[in-house]
């Protein structure tokens, strides 16, 4: 049955609202990272990811008086190519670029004068710092914002797309498909990942039940949560009910879970970004 004009207009509005929500979540997340960076000798030092992306940008600058640069995403290190809008948003907040435009696979931006001299200015600022007290200390952030625990059988149907959606917000993710490489001791890499991640999204499905390593990951995160009393485990129910969850994992009965049914991956990414922003403020 064909959709009515009203239904089409409603769907268009919903897509537009979701797009605005994603953009706002990206801005809030970027702002949280930027404001959390130390100020040394009056200069805010960028986070490591932003410095790596900005160094790649500077290599493209040809000295033109308008400080204009453009390129495609291949100029950036592979881990950042799926989250370039988020990385550019941080650079804008740091004052490194003054404008930015994106198109499919490409971008253009305008460098600021302070951007051109950032790395030299940073070196001077650090040298001028006379003591460790001159650098405000911030709570140490873990290497990964989130660990996605899941059953391999759910990768292609759901989890791969969830990972890509989170990456678009600039979120640092431990995802086995991206982290593990040929010859790794995969068990040790995964256990290290549980220690290096701030949160864990546990994608729980019937495929998750009874698997040795998915349940080992869940156990590791629950132990950490019980020790420090801080929220870590974020259960995400994929094609199962709350009753099934409580029946299989009674320990999760008191932890608020959400279901994928009725929620887009963008909705879930925004919810997670809000949790991350609250943690890092």
Q: Mind explaining what this structure looks like?
A:
The chain has 281 residues and is of the alpha/beta class. The chain has 2 domains: 37-134, Arc Repressor Mutant, subunit A, CATH 1.10.10; 144-280, 3-Layer(aba) Sandwich (Rossmann fold), CATH 3.40.50.10140. The chain has helices spanning 5-35, 48-58, 84-94, 113-116, 118-128, 155-167, 176-179, 186-195, 212-228, 242-248, 265-280, and strands spanning 39-40, 43-44, 68-72, 97-103, 106-111, 144-149, 173-174, 197-204, 233-237, 258-259. The strands form 3 sheets. The chain has a 5-stranded parallel sheet. The protein has a 3-stranded antiparallel sheet with strand order 3-5-4. The model has no long low-confidence stretch (mean pLDDT 89).
Integer count of domains:
2
Q: What would CATH call the architecture of the largest domain?
A: 3-Layer(aba) Sandwich
- Along the chain, the helix and strand elements come as HEEHEHEEHHEHEHHEHEHEH
Taking Cα atoms only, what radius of gyration do you get, to the nearest Å? Answer: 21 Å
Our measurement of the CA-to-CA distance between the termini, rounded to an integer number of angstroms, reads 49 Å
- Might you state the CATH topology name of the largest domain? Rossmann fold
Instruction: Please tally the helical runs, counting DSSP H or I stretches of 4 or more residues.
Output: 11
The CATH superfamily of the largest domain is Toll/interleukin-1 receptor homology (TIR) domain
Residues in helices, as a percent range: 40-55%
Number of β-strand runs = 10
Side by side, the strands of the main sheet go 7-6-8-9-10
